[in-house]
Specification:
Two copies of one chain form a homodimer. By secondary structure, chain A is α+β, with helices and mostly antiparallel strands. Chain A contains four helices and four strands; from the N terminus they run E-E-H-H-H-E-E-H. In chain A, the strands form two sheets. In chain A, strands 1-2 form a two-stranded antiparallel sheet. The first copy, chain A, is elongated. The relative contact order of chain A is 0.17. The A-B interface holds A 1, 3-15, 19, 63, 87-88, 91, 95, 98-99, 102-103, 106 and B 1, 3-15, 19, 63, 87-88, 91, 95, 98-99, 102-103, 106.
């Protein structure tokens, strides 16, 4: 319908628990880019505490670790995605694109 | 990915304001079925006040009336969808089906 827009959200869950939505995906993308949880959080204007908790939660729900957090070093620790985490992020990013295409198609009708 | 399920929600908005989501769609379907806002609300275990407010909100945001509320009568008033409202409900219901298909396809991968 004219002037009406279909919008929405998608998320990935496991056993009924949400593991990834758009917010956590952005956090993972930033971790992949910067290799640091503190930097990733700061770029998103998210508190370090919240980012840390998000990562713990993702790792807890996932069938295997998604992010590895390493303490220490002069930058205050490193963070990186496991091979599984990289795959998960890639798959969900593609689903987000497909969903955006779905919405675009619906909105053209 | 195995054991992971993609889920989501869609809603219809106009000028950035939500007009229809899954809850309001159910309310409209019940109004269509029972011809009464009180009955529709009661079937959904929703307060009459909340249902009434939802309808006012839909009518306010939509480009033309979606539901007509008629006061009085022994059943305490009637409610029915306008032609435009019927079309809106039908379109959105089809979009919900298409979205469900989208999710099913994604979850088969």
């Amino acid at each position: 319908m004219k002037n009406y827009e279909l919008t929405g959200r998608i998320w990935l869950s496991k056993d009924g628990e949400t593991i990834l939505g758009s917010g956590k995906v952005t956090l993972l993308q930033h971790i992949e880019k910067f290799g640091s949880l503190r930097r990733a959080a700061s770029e998103m204007k998210m508190s370090y505490r919240k980012a840390w908790y998000s990562i713990k939660q993702i790792n807890l729900i996932a069938s295997e670790p998604v992010v590895v957090l390493q303490r220490g070093g002069k930058d205050g620790g490193k963070a990186f995605l496991t091979k599984f985490g990289t795959q998960l992020l890639q798959d969900f990013s593609q689903q987000q694109l497909a969903f955006q295409e779905f919405l675009n198609t619906q909105n053209k009708h």
